[in-house]
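Page 37, top half.
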Amino acid sequence: MGPHPAVADVRRAVREALADVPQGASVLVACSGGADSLALAAALGFVAPRAGLRAGLLTVDHQLQPGSAERARTVAEVGSGELGLDPAEVLTVEVGTAGGPEAAAREARYGALAAAADRLGADAVLLGHTRDDQAETVLLGLARGSGPRSLSGMAAVSGRYRRPFLDLPRATTVAACAALGLAPWDDPHNDDPRFTRVRVRRKVLPVLEAELGPGVADALARTARLAREDADALDIWAGSAYTDCALSDIAAPGKPVELSVAKLEKLPDAVRRRVLRRAALAAGAPSGALSATHVLAVDRLVTRWRGQKAVDLPGGLTAVRRYGTLILAITPIP
């Protein structure tokens, strides 16, 4: 008799996600102890030795709740014990306040994971985001109005990070843990309405399912895949266009960037604005502070030129048009 269907599903997802990883490579799983990441860790523990891979576990203690250190140790013990993952480490982090609690915790977590992956020589780090997480991400992006890249949600592969469960519902990971006799930890933060994602999960998605019928999460995840394909194609086009429009050395980050207005004018809006964003980042604008509003203001120097003044951008950057050239540089522009 074969494994429970949910167990077979999570194992298959991990096996497919690691199909291109060479034998002997090291793979780590980020595990909080929740159902999604616990099912992922169990699946990796099963798949890795059969694929000739070395597998370990990382769990992050954010120190934000009483007893977090003990819970993290328990997760590591489960990883090194019944799941057969070695090493199984606890990464203790200090969470700041910049960008709000969710963003600060995420920044601390990913910083710790990246440092551990470098130290351990890992080829891949698996993350337990599911189709439900993807649906929530798309809704949050839609609410921000930040364009197709935001609507494209999370990538299945992003550098060393891989998300094998993006096509699986959260219910599958819960069922897999139950079938394997694993006891997930329910993080109280997952039910805390102070967090925007929790409100989307507990209130917004259920209303959509009730009013529009079942399958909303699947439809949103499918939308993310389609949006990502389109956004990737536009980014590739914009990369070529950026090189074509450049009148300065764009390979020198932090230096002034000069672009041909005549060539910019010929580009479709979506491509031109991507070129302008690339130019601003290359000239020194911080990515987290550069908004769509800033890019649109620079775009008006190209498409609605009336002799207007320079546009101020984050990071002390200025964009100005001079004699058919768009210049982006740290103030003052020479």
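Page 37, bottom half:
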Amino acid sequence: MEVLTRPAEEFDNDQSVEAMWAMKAYEHSEIYFNILCSADPKILRLTPEDDLIYKLFREQFPELDVRVIKENELKSTKEKARWRPFCEQFKTVVEDYSYGTLLRADASKDYSEENSILVTRIQFYAIEIARNREGINDLLRNKFRCDDNKLPENS
């Protein structure tokens, strides 16, 4: 996994590196989902900068309904232009801010191929911090009882 710390410019769409990124993103999603199922999301802190991330996210994206994220809208040319400056302001603040991370499109469901979107780590933090603070992730503890550190079966 040491290769993942090297600059991206050194690689030309190397499938083994892409597979390692996918594996790392999946591991992150599995851990995060298990935490959501077992802890109160409202008190969960994802980074030391949660307050700043949430404040700036809601200032810059006040209208974004984080319950269901539509990938085609999130990744449209217009939205990419809005997200880019948001993300870049965390370049020196949040470690690995640009890493590829899996986000649940529909907050009421678990991770699945159909319900996962690849986003940058800071986009994941912004949306998931909002979901936690706004009570959207609260239902997960009751809906999915995660036992033995395993993801529940897809619903």
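Margin note: Residues 147-155 have pLDDT under 50 and may be disordered.
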